Amino acid sequence: MEGKGREAPSASGRNWAEMQSDVLMMIFFKIGLIEVLRAAGSACRSWRKVAKDEPELWRRINMTNHGYVGNARLLKDLTRLAIDRSGGILEEFSVQGFGDDDLLRYLCDRSSVLKKLCFISCYNFSAEAIAETAKKQPLLEEIQMTLGSYCEKVTEIVGNGCPQLKSFKFNNKWYHNPHDDPDYDEDISVDEEALGIAKTMHQLLHLQLIGNRLTNEGLEAILDGCPHLEMLDIRRCYNVEMDADMQALCARLKTIRLPSDSVGDYEFEAEVFSDEELDDDVNYDIPGFHDDFDENFFAMHHAVFGYWPW
Question: How far apart are CA 16 and CA 231, in angstroms?
Answer without folding.
Answer: 47
